[in-house]
Amino acid sequence: MDAHPKRRIFVNKGDDRYQLFSFSQHDDGTIYCGAADFVDAKWIGFDITAQGPKLATTESIGDGKLSLHGTGMAAIRRHDDPSGHQLIVKGNLLKNDQELRARHLFTVFLKEPGYLPHASPAFNRKSDYSMQANEDLRPLVLAFFAVPRVATEIDFRFSLQVEQMTSIPNDLLGMHYFTLRYHHVMWFAYRTKHMDKWPKYSHYCYSDGYWFPVFIGTGEGAFTLEFRQPRYLLDGTKLVIDCGEALPRDAIGV
């Protein structure tokens, strides 16, 4: 897949393609992500302590961006407040002088997509990328990982417990990737039981990049977070990402 320093990410719903995100990657490896739903999104971060994962949450930041720095720092801030970073987490680097690394970027339980950029619709730019829903678009969770471009094949291993899955097939909705300056950004889509309605607000969760937060529905208006620690194995140009077993949870309300 061709590399582009900037990309817009869409998803189809019926005959329309709604923009979900904009991604860019700078020379220092930093990845920036913006989205129309940042205006009212809920944000969740966490630190790993001796007592387990400790959650930190914040309300919407308004029109802003998520910064995932080459140095490993992740934070959110408003566009009109360059120094007002929130939910700052230090973690696994993306790029230094010697190497590129793989890391989890963020996981989001999306509200229903609704942004159509009429002035510049999907595929108006060569760098535009669209996720393809093979069914009527229904509530889903998206997880994003950065993968060094040396990997030409990605083997992503993830599973849910039987009691977490619905009676509707294809809860594990698939994965693919698009390519930025130095990294592929791999996305994985899934849903669980009790995710039959779109949430009022999108919920984003990111961490130090070593841990992978997984949203699990527990009932209307509530979910838990499972924390998994992926293992990465590069075999030639094939990268295996094994998400392993769930770690202890913290429950929060939507």
User: Which percent bin holds the helix content?
Assistant: under 10%
First-to-last CA distance: 37 Å
Low-confidence stretches: 249-254
Structural class: mainly beta
Beta-strand content bin? over 45%
What's the number of structural domains? 1
Shape: globular
Strand order of the largest sheet: 8-7-6-3-2-1-10
- How many strands? 20
Element string (H = helix, E = strand)? EEEEEEEEEEEEEEEEEEEE
Largest sheet: 7 strands, mixed
Rg (CA only): 17 Å
- Number of helical segments with 4 or more residues: 0
Give the averaged pLDDT, no decimals.
87
Per-chain topology:
Blueprint (H helix, E strand, L loop, with lengths): L5 E8 L2 E10 L5 E4 L7 E8 L2 E7 L5 E5 L4 E6 L7 E5 L12 E7 L19 E3 L9 E8 L4 E5 L14 E8 L3 E8 L12 E4 L5 E8 L2 E7 L2 E5 L2 E5 L4 E7 L1
Parallel strand pairs: 1-10, 4-15, 12-19
Antiparallel strand pairs: 1-2, 2-3, 3-6, 4-5, 6-7, 7-8, 9-11, 9-15, 11-14, 13-14, 16-17, 17-20, 18-19
Task: Report what the structure shows.
This protein is an all-beta fold. The protein has strands spanning 6-13, 16-25, 31-34, 42-49, 52-58, 64-68, 73-78, 86-90, 103-109, 129-131, 141-148, 153-157, 172-179, 183-190, 203-206, 212-219, 222-228, 231-235, 238-242, 247-253. The protein has one domain. Helices cover 0% and strands 50% of the residues. The strands form four sheets. Strands 8-7-6-3-2-1-10 form a seven-stranded mixed β-sheet, with no helix packed on it. A seven-stranded mixed β-sheet has the order 5-4-15-9-11-14-13, with no helix packed on it. It has a three-stranded mixed β-sheet with strand order 12-19-18, with no helix packed on it. The protein starts with 5 loop residues before the first strand and ends with a strand. Residues 249-254 have low confidence and may be disordered.
